[in-house]
Amino acid sequence: MGGDGLVVTERTRLRRIREQGSHRRGDLDAVLATGFLCHLGVVVDGTAMVVPTAYGVDDGQLYLHGSVASRSLVQAPGSTVCVTVTHVDGLVLARSVFEHSVNYRCAMIYGVPRLVTDPDEKLRGLRALTEQSTPGQWEYVRQPNRKELAATALLALDLDEASVKTRTGPPDDGDSEDAALGLWAGVLPVVTTFGEPVADPVLAADVLPPAHVTSRVGRPPGE
Amino acid sequence: MGGDGLVVTERTRLRRIREQGSHRRGDLDAVLATGFLCHLGVVVDGTAMVVPTAYGVDDGQLYLHGSVASRSLVQAPGSTVCVTVTHVDGLVLARSVFEHSVNYRCAMIYGVPRLVTDPDEKLRGLRALTEQSTPGQWEYVRQPNRKELAATALLALDLDEASVKTRTGPPDDGDSEDAALGLWAGVLPVVTTFGEPVADPVLAADVLPPAHVTSRVGRPPGE
Fold first, then answer.
1. I need a surface site. Which of A39, B27, B128, B160 has the fewest CB within 10 A?
2. CATH of domain B20-192
3. Do residues A181 and B195 touch, judged by C-beta distance below 8 A?
4. Using CB atoms and an 8 Å cut-off, which of residues 6-45 of chain B contact chain A?
5. Which ipTM was obtained for this model?
6. Best of A43, A45, A141, A219 to disrupt the B interface by mutation (most B CBs within 10 Å)?
7. Minimal Cα distance from B216: which residue of A?
8. What is the mean pLDDT of each run of 10 residues along chain A (223 residues)?
9. What number of other Cβ atoms are within 10 A of residue B81's Cβ?
């Protein structure tokens, strides 16, 4: 614990024992690198609101964006938010209902988001968002113009206060008396990959998807 | 809006126009049936905390569980929580950065969870949780004993106040002036399926996975 850079606070201190926790920056970076969607938690009218949204990472900052009309983003600057990124790796099927679990990797980041107003940082943040899900896409497509930049709300969040939790491996009851039941136990993996690209129906048939898109087919996000 | 059963409140009223929203109970049920993991948002010390956790559905109730030690579950009863279930279906790759999006299905449920104490309902809730991810597993494995039931915190949440948002289809800029750029545009599907079961290493080699597990290989959750 303590690790190389992440601040351990009361709310990121790891409490559960059965799962593995980490405050290492490298573990956080690895979880963030594997996906592009997070769940953003904001307090709205005293109640938590949890919305899925895309993210990007650049220079120790997590960037989140959305329409200016989005309630959660309008409320977020100035108050603490929680951003959670979860990858599900498998169902842990044990000999007893009680020992069932899920193999997963999860990062939780707390911070007070900053509304990005500097045009250069806004471009960098949007680039990070675009490249997070589709590396190579930023250079391939038309980049934002001034009007589009103005219509995009972009939030930046420090990656300092965070924790990572993971569960891996078989069920925990292999050495329990339930092992004598003779039941099958193990993990049913959950596999997430990209499928074959589906062209926009209005596209001319001779316009083929670029290599940075086709190269991802059959591979998981982040690879 | 209004639909067949879900209550439309200020916080579930659909605000964004570009995505499709629904307050129909059937749409909610369809999103919930396709997964087993939600993100639970709870206010802890004035800040939203977003934790991934498994869920089950039975008789109009959403059941969530976890260790009694889990902070979010201990705090949740008596205060309003937000439960969000998100399925990512594809990256929407447009001609301009600005029009990039994600195809998804998302359900958001608000309510004040109730701590389940009745042993019969606790069993029904745990059954729903187990069967949500792995149909057939409840009858196959050893069901909870009294001690295990006592050690499990189970929350029930009414499904009445909820909204569903989805985005499907190609990018929106097929009829814009960017179409003249001649770039490929379309959707890169995200496909989630179950992989080949991985046996617990301590298991005897002649113990084979049951049909309700092997039948799911190559299929997505909820099918």
1. B160
2. 2.30.110.10
3. no
4. 10-11, 15-16, 18, 36-37, 39-45
5. 0.91
6. A141
7. A188
8. 57 55 92 95 89 94 70 67 96 95 95 91 96 97 93 91 94 93 97 97 95 96 86
9. 24
